[in-house]
Amino acid sequence: MKPADGFTLSCPIPIAEYPTVLLAHGGGGKLTRALIEHMFLPLFRNPQLEQLHDGAVLELAGTKLAFTTDSYVVHPLIFPGGDIGQLAVNGTVNDLAMCGARPLSLSASFIIEEGLPMETLWHIVQSMQHAAAAAGVAIVTGDTKVVDRGKGDGLFINTAGVGIVAPHVSIAPGNVRPGDVVLLSGDIGRHGIAIMAVREGLAFESVIESDCAPLAGLVAALLDAGIALHCLRDLTRGGLASALVEIAETAQVHIAVDERIIPVTDDVQGACEILGLDPLYVANEGRFVAFVAPADAGRALEIMQTHPPGAGAARIGSVAEDPAGLVTMTSKIGASRIVSLLSGEQLPRIC
Amino acid sequence: MKPADGFTLSCPIPIAEYPTVLLAHGGGGKLTRALIEHMFLPLFRNPQLEQLHDGAVLELAGTKLAFTTDSYVVHPLIFPGGDIGQLAVNGTVNDLAMCGARPLSLSASFIIEEGLPMETLWHIVQSMQHAAAAAGVAIVTGDTKVVDRGKGDGLFINTAGVGIVAPHVSIAPGNVRPGDVVLLSGDIGRHGIAIMAVREGLAFESVIESDCAPLAGLVAALLDAGIALHCLRDLTRGGLASALVEIAETAQVHIAVDERIIPVTDDVQGACEILGLDPLYVANEGRFVAFVAPADAGRALEIMQTHPPGAGAARIGSVAEDPAGLVTMTSKIGASRIVSLLSGEQLPRIC
Lengths: 351, 351
Prior knowledge:
The structure is a homodimer.
Chain A: H1 30-44, H2 47-50, E1 56-60, E2 63-72, E3 78-79, E4 82-83, H3 84-98, E5 101-113, H4 118-135, E6 138-147, E7 155-165, E8 181-184, H5 190-200, H6 216-224, E9 229-234, H7 239-251, E10 254-258, H8 266-275, E11 288-292, H9 297-305, E12 314-320, E13 327-330, E14 336-339
Parallel strand pairs in A: 5-6, 10-13
Antiparallel strand pairs in A: 1-2, 2-7, 3-4, 5-7, 8-11, 8-12, 9-11, 10-12, 13-14
Helix pairs in contact in A: 3-4, 3-6
């Protein structure tokens, strides 16, 4: 391909090493990070994007507006505990909540593969409406495209969302500071394992269901109580480990967590052992970490535990100054290890 | 598929007739309209969506915010006069402009097929940045997903956008009224023909280039001049004909246009004849119609003609009361005919 006029920059991803895009470039690990840091960020450079948060917060005529987007390509479309429609609504609602915003309106854009059963589409669209009603948001604008058979995979959905951030609220990775307490909203790994179990045809004693849930109500309760929230991050692709590493790197702090306190259900733990996965890296769709000022940590934990999606919340660690940019974890046998981003693809198309 | 609890509604699209989604459901014609009217609209029902406009206008703490989204699935990714990246930026900028908004920020979400050449991605991302800079918008948030080889088609891009609508501005199909003058911003059909020529391997004397362009500057000039704009609509999928039919139906007015005044270049006309297409239905990506109060029409036309994307603007018709919901056209031989939505798919994956 010949570059057009003015396209003089050479590709910032080493072509010799990565001549084409790999599945792992979308996995939420090191290669995704490389695309963002070397390709998107330098080119699109602006203060909102540089926050490297779940959404952008814009100042509009004195109002703080949160704006976020995600495309959903989960396979299969319908899985234990949810479907792509519910995921697409909750995922974007949660990204807004992670900015400290009250979600208001969503867009919904469908890329349908020719041949998708009409009743499947109908099921998923109904599911979106149920999820939107449950989260108190309206779907106000949309788009529908259809691609030829063999050029898609049933259905991809993009949702974007807007929400209002209260004037005094400022939640972003850059606000995390030494002394902060790390709270986790519940047990991890259920969404990823629910998907993998269906794909691999694994049957467990009880069906493992996705944790897919809207988190905006819980975040609003924390904000309403005046909790000093410094950063929130939902644990999607790449799981708890990737969320912590990204925040430690952006905030240039040391995050220390204790694996012995991180809740994982027995069935998820068992499934992870069978599948050779580490639950720390498995995707969730209804879990988040909160970085909270130490004085507020106890109260924040109580509030989380009284809300259904935070019933299993736990205090899993704290933030220190050095070594900056690093996440360490006390393992189950009491040893300390460094937690890093995965270099490969653990679970493709999990969301 | 077994419906989940609470999913008791039966599918509003007749399954016997349409057991699966067809390419034409995404073509911008009758079947797209049926999906929107029977499936999305009744389920998601809210005042913004019911406007059936290019975007939603939300009231936020005294500020009018326009919010819109589109997914782009154009094939091929790079074509004469543009590429999917430029299209994804201009398309959403234009949808905001059609709401009378000043575009501010975009999101960009990529669904990449494993195996896409890294340099193609780089070319397209650069093109997005060029287009964003030209339109004066920032890309503030995004997402990257990768799907397995054979489950996508190189690259799909979703952009959503937000913009500010001035307090006194109200532009929507429902505002069109009898007496309004219909202005068209330039010659039609170039985008669709540029794409089809590449796909079909047609060579013309000169290469036909897409008209892909940002329209927000031109719309801002009209608004700044105080022109009484009642409705704006860019002519994408389904072309001029579909835009007029949709507006006539929503506003319940009669729109009469004159084919003899509608600008079509000789090369586009010739290509349409070879391909068996009617330029009225061919997609554009840098053209719009404006419905303007008659007293302002002359001045509006002058302003349009002084801006590059409106250089070929023309006054193509007017609005009457009856027959409500109908578009009629005086043809080249002077006869009057009814213009309707296409029932099939004219040009799949044009945007």
